[in-house]
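Researcher: Good morning. I'm working through a list of sequences from a screen, and I'd like to move beyond sequence-only analysis. For each chain I'm collecting a predicted structure so we can compare shapes side by side. This is the next one on the list. No need for commentary yet; just the structure.
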Amino acid sequence: QVQLVESGGGLVQAGGSLRLSCAASGGIFSMYVMEWYRQAPGKQRELVAGITSAGLTNYGDSVKGRFTISRDNAKNTVYLQMNSLKPEDTAVYYCHAARWDQGYWGQGTQVTVSS
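Model: Good morning. Structure tokens for this chain:
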């Protein structure tokens, strides 16, 4: 069983930056694909970014060039650096760990971008 705890959310003005962190425990962190999802009110949860155990990354089209995902396997932590934030980035951001048919979610952290 993997436990995920997100932190770093908050209120920021448009154009600003935030760095989200997701600390994992209870599993072999380096073996998991780590992902960030987000869900805005009234919308479906969407993939923001993912990073494999080898460090390969992928991003949702709406965040390419603005967000960067990274991981520190020694600290069992995945990060999401968010720059040039827009009001439409406002959502609850969730960390997700995946390996084979296993998947684990964090509780989410709220990001609010004011215009």
